[in-house]
Recover the amino acids of this structure.
């Protein structure tokens, strides 16, 4: 995967996360609303940074979709927590791809984004994986 392709994939994932956290924020219990708002703000900031990065690399940044299909229904706070964890795991996956594709400061930024998404996923889910961003993807790859 080229660096530009990895940046665009990460940007697309951030667009989806921003949308998803809009749903999370509307369903989450008050005791976790601050956590959801902070994650939403973090994803907006990362989205904006990736938009600038795509332009700096000479690419036209991918745009957000008007809406996204959620992986499951989110009728209540428990489902909102599961959605938040899923969003973070998806972002961690594309960030791991960006870490592999990039070098220099962009690679460091991608590693920081991977770490942040992995930490948020653990907070939402209550457990983590040894290698965030890779565990779910390893099953679909051979060698």
């Amino acid at each position: 995967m080229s660096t530009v392709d990895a940046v665009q994939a990460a940007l697309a994932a951030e667009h989806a996360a921003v949308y998803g956290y809009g749903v999370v924020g509307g369903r989450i219990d008050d005791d976790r609303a601050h956590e959801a708002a902070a994650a939403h703000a973090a994803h907006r900031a990362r989205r904006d940074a990736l938009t600038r990065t795509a332009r700096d690399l000479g690419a036209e940044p991918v745009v957000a979709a008007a809406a996204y299909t959620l992986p499951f229904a989110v009728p209540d706070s428990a489902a909102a927590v599961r959605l938040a964890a899923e969003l973070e795991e998806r972002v961690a996956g594309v960030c791991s791809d960006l870490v592999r594709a990039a070098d220099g400061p962009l690679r460091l930024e991608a590693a920081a984004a991977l770490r942040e998404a992995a930490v948020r996923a653990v907070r939402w889910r209550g457990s983590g994986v040894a290698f965030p961003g890779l565990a779910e993807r390893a099953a679909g790859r051979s060698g």
